[in-house]
Amino acid sequence: MTLSRAETKALYDKISKVYDLLSEHTEGPVREAGLRMLAPAAGETVLEIGFGTGHALVWLAHAVGPSGMVHGIDLSDGMMAVAETLAGHAGVADRVELRTGDATDLPYPADSMDAVFMSFTLELFDTAEIPAVLAQCWRVLRAGGRIVVVAMSKEGAHGLVYEAYEWTHRHFPNFVDCRPILVSQVLAAAGFQVTEKRNLQIWVPMEVVRAEKTA
C-alpha cells in the first residue's frame, strides 16, 4: 500500500524542514555509499530523482565540477525550497537545476544524462509503477550510462524490526510511506545490467546497486 501523489507531496512538504532531524543520521551513510558507487566525474551531467533536502545534490555538484551539471526532480515544493537553500550555501547553485515533478514522466530529453541517482526513493512508488520509473531512467540515460539505486531491500535478515516495519507500512502508510523492494531484480527486469551491489543494514536491510544501460 502506497500513498497517492497528493498525499505523498503533502507529507514531504510538511516534514521538509525537519526531515534531516528525523532521517539524516541513518540515511546519510547509506546514501554516501551509493554516491561513491556512482563515481560521478568532472564534466558529467547527472540526474537525482527524489533529491529531498539536497545533500546528494551538493555532493554530486562538487564531483562534476564547474563544467558539469546536476539536475534534480522531486515531488515536494517544500523539499525543493530546502535543497535550493543548501545548494546556495554550498556555492554550487550555478550547476544545480531543480524541478518539481513525477518520476514516471521525466521532463528531460532522451539520452541526456550520464548517470542517474536515487536514494530512498524507488521504494516510495507502487509496485506497478516501478517499471515505469525505471523505463524513464533508461530513456534519459545515454548509451553506457549508469544508475545507482539505494533502497530498502527484501533481501537479508527478516527479524522482528523488519516485520514490524512492514506491518506499520501496510496499516499506517502515512507514517511509514515506503517499504522494502527487490532492488537488483527490478533493475535487471527493466533491462539494466547490474554491475555492482552491496547489501547493508540499518533498521532494515538495504541494497546499494549500480547498473548500466548497455543497449
Provide a brief overview of the structure.
The chain is of the alpha/beta class and 215 residues long. It has helices at 5-15, 19-38, 55-64, 77-90, 130-140, 160-171, 183-189; strands at residues 45-49, 69-74, 96-100, 113-119, 141-152, 193-201, 205-212.
Give structural attributes.
globular; Rossmann fold; alpha/beta; 215 residues; 7-stranded mixed β-sheet; 7 strands
How far apart lie the N and C ends? 34 Å
What is the fold-level CATH name, i.e. the topology? Rossmann fold
Uncertain segments of ≥5 residues (pLDDT<50)? Answer: 171-177
Content-based structural category: alpha/beta
CATH class: Alpha Beta
Q: Helical region count?
A: 7
Strand order of the largest sheet: 3-2-1-4-5-7-6
The H/E string reads: HHEHEHEEHEHHEE
Major pleated sheet: 7 strands, mixed
- What's the alpha carbon Rg, rounded to whole Å? 16 Å
**How many domain regions?**
1
Helix content, binned percent: 25-40%
Number of DSSP strand runs: 7
The oligomeric state of the chains shown is single chain
Note the overall shape: globular
Instruction: Give average pLDDT, whole number.
Output: 87
* Strand percent estimate: 15-25%
CATH superfamily (homologous) name: Vaccinia Virus protein VP39
Question: Under the CATH scheme, which architecture would be assigned?
Answer: 3-Layer(aba) Sandwich
